Amino acid sequence: MQGVFFRASFAELARRLELDGWVTNRPDGAVEAVVSGSDDAVGEAIAWCCRGPELASVDSVEISEEAGTLRERGFRVS
């Protein structure tokens, strides 16, 4: 969902949880994020995505796990 500060809110959470990665709006209106960090921090981020920020209406969350590490440190919004 776009227009409810989902990306900014998620980025704030990700930085607080010390996650690496990024979040972006997709052309179809969905939000896509890639995160890397401790299992607990990633789990908390996923749980947050299921509800989103206060004004969000989350219809579904798709999760895929990929091996490897991100090249960049920190978290960015694009």
Structure write-up:
The chain has one domain: Alpha-Beta Plaits (2-Layer Sandwich), CATH 3.30.70. The longest helix is centred in the middle third of the chain and has 13 residues, at 39-51. It is globular, with a radius of gyration of 12 Å. The chain is of the alpha+beta class and 78 residues long. The mean pLDDT is 91. The protein has helices at residues 6-16, 39-51; strands at residues 20-25, 31-36, 75-77. It starts with 5 loop residues before the first helix and ends with a strand. The protein is 31% helix and 19% strand. A three-stranded mixed β-sheet has the order 2-1-3, with helices on one face.
How many angstroms does the end-to-end distance come to?
A: 15 Å
**Are there runs of 5+ residues with pLDDT below 50, and where?**
none
Radius of gyration: 12 Å
What's the SSE pattern?
Answer: HEEHE
Task: Quickly give the structural class.
Answer: alpha+beta
SS field, number of helical segments: 2
